[in-house]
């Protein structure tokens, strides 16, 4: 309720679109097109058909090589009312901002007060954000499935099967190469399947199906990102901006390499410096730096958002320039639709850009909180997990504070404490650390795979 009252006055999503840095191309009116066509065709005749006394005009057509210059306009709040998926975009971005603020305040509270036996409420907010992201990506994917033509449905199904096979292959890789902590007796000492309700094979099969679903959801965001990346590079001439755009595009690859032990971790923890081997940092420090690297790359992606959205909006002018090179005629309605369609689907593109970013950000937050990591670079080896529940003091407090309490109530408290203790032996910080590390790595891997395919498609296949 508080968020709904704040959004009409202060909305970060509305500021991203309506701050004045984005300009969209307005479609020409029919009178303007008629005037331009009249200048080129001096002897143009109108042919009418009379049916039952009514005059039916043919659709107005103009030459494709007409001298048309589109007018630009800054996006205003009134313009956003006509955008498809704008309410979903505004709610997702603003709720993510609110959840991030709650997370930061909670982390500050746990750093200063260091409470024990309390549930970290920021975990609930992060889970809600991830639920909204999955719902949004599902609705966007369902939108592509409804299209009968274009091949989007087949492409999505193909990538879903591809990511399922890829996930099964990744899950059999040993921890010597990909360090997640999903195997028994790995270098971090995590044991995930020694005490649990399911077997390792069943767990990996369920995880592979989840990875396939995530990969299918991230297919079109990755393909769209590749096209916007190429257009953004052509749009700017500043070397610094181009460098940041390249780093932004390669940021998922950087995240993927952070979990590849032979490439990153082994060189930092056990560097070969002559005859002596002196580690540059501890494993806890490396885990902390990995979290900070992901956060910085997420901030960079958010900073580059306007360059990508403006590159998408320029597709309207790009389409008109391409039309001028073609021969023939086009109806005014088709021309107006071609130009207006780009702006009306701006929020769909913005959601495809923001949703993977939000998934990575809040999965990293969960990895830090549930995995027992620390934001401090030089953290101690044994850090208390904020999600730990100390059940023994509760039993003692009930037994000592009210000596006349009924035996049934005492038995219920004991049973609840035993149940929570049993869950704690299964859902340990090491389990969350392994699972969330893999999911964070997988989101980045899916986004990079689809982006690379989109880059190859738009730069080579489309050009051919």
Automatic annotation (TrEMBL):
Entry's transmembrane regions: 91-110, 122-143, 155-173, 201-223, 243-260, 288-304, 342-367, 394-423, 435-457
Keyword Transmembrane attached: yes
Database matches in Pfam families: Tmemb_161AB
A cellular component annotation (GO) from this entry: membrane
Alphabetized UniProt keyword annotations: Glycoprotein, Membrane, Transmembrane, Transmembrane helix
Compartments reported by the entry: Membrane
Keyword Signal carried by entry: no
Coiled coil: none
Membrane topology type: Multi-pass membrane protein
Region entry Disordered, spans: 35-58
Similarity comment text for this entry: Belongs to the TMEM161 family.
Protein name: Transmembrane protein 161B
Encoding gene, per UniProt annotation: TMEM161B
